[in-house]
Amino acid sequence: MNLKRFKAIALAIFVLTLILALAGTCTAASVEIRGIPLDTGSTDSQNISWDFRTFPAFAFNANKYSNYVSGVGEHLYFEDKGNSPALGKDNPSASTIDEGELFYTTKQFPSKYKVFSEEENVTKLSFFYMMHLFGKPYCTIDNDATHLAKMLYQQGASDKKTLKAGETWDIAGGYSLTLNGIDVNGNKCYFSLYKNGKELDTAVISTDNTIDDRIFTADAEFGDNASHIYFVTFVDSVFASADTDFAVFKYTWLIDKDNPLSIESGDEFGNFEVDQALENLIVMSNSDAITINVDADSKTNITDEWYFKTSDEGKGSNGGYVIYPAKTVILADQSPATATETATGTAEIDTSSPASSNVQVQEDNSTQTKAITENSSGNSGEVYGTSSEAPTEAETPASASSEAAASSGFGGFLAFISLVSIVYCFKRSQI
């Protein structure tokens, strides 16, 4: 091989492995999820607006529900009331949002139970309605956006959970499923559903029956004091032998029946107050004037979790500034592929599979009092929204994609080997 070409290849390998090594040693302690920046010197006031396409903290699937894009999902926007100079290019340096000028709206949308979408001849279940409230997934109770229950867990279409006889599956939110036993013929299983150790329901399911008969649902009175389904699972298969008995569960779906959230006009969420609480739409606006701090990298809180960040006054065009909404997410100290929502209400992120629908939400019970937890001493990453991209799975809360790379030391080893190879090549060239 030509020596110059060999040296070039070795150099390229070294650079690539060095980048991988450096990436492997940088673990983000927090991620700032950012909306698309807008320049107040060139943006009309009526275009100061962000939705799921431009702010990743919002959750909505534009591809799956393209027919419902208009007005569906979450929306944050400015609407001038004519009191103070309006934000935007007519008043580039204006930085005051008067009471009732910053709006947040969210609307419910239909979602299929996984067992209904993946199995044939299902008549027992079909659709339920979801709504995201400040980026977090809820099920609307009886399709009413004013009565909500948190989505605690939803298995993806290809996910399976295998339980041996006597084994317990800790699902989420204190709920667990125990496989009590398999009958001797291997076609029936007996299991129980628990909440914090208290038995809620039991079932005997036979895989010889129809698809509907293999679906187990648990219901209770909650929300509007009527009976509603809060748990669904499907027995895919059972197996019994002299050594091992087990059952396979799929399409499991769980909401929190014990902490329903009711929304009424006048309720407050951070700096927002509910103006309209309708069956299919929630409208809020700021209850107090907001003065935006336009100093570089400053924060102006708009809810307990969200805030505006800006450039510096005059850094935009025509003497304006750049502004965007943002949210800080703390990455849990666990595997690099998953960041789970902490008790402070930060969003769950699963970077191992952006399209995953296996949802588990862990957060404070009080939506109104959630607070942003920041790690000012740690490294932070940044996630921006784009107008051409949207979340790929409606059932996934979370609201944005990010990555935290764990250091393994292997990349550094490759970089060292590559460096040795380059030194060797250069020495060869001097012989």
Automatic annotation (TrEMBL):
Residues 386-400 have a biased composition (Low complexity). It comes from Methanosarcina acetivorans. Residues 349-380 have a biased composition (Polar residues). The keyword Methyltransferase does not apply. Keywords: Membrane, Transmembrane, Transmembrane helix. It comes from the Archaea. The chain crosses the membrane at residues 404-426. It holds the Pfam family S-layer. InterPro entries: S_layer-rel_Mac. Gene3D superfamilies: 2.60.40.4190, 2.60.98.40. The lineage of its organism: Archaea, Methanobacteriati, Methanobacteriota, Stenosarchaea group, Methanomicrobia. This is S-layer family duplication domain-containing protein. Residues 341-400 are annotated as: Disordered. Residues 42-312 form the S-layer family duplication domain. NCBIfam families: S_layer_rel_Mac (TIGR01567). The keyword Amino-acid biosynthesis does not apply.
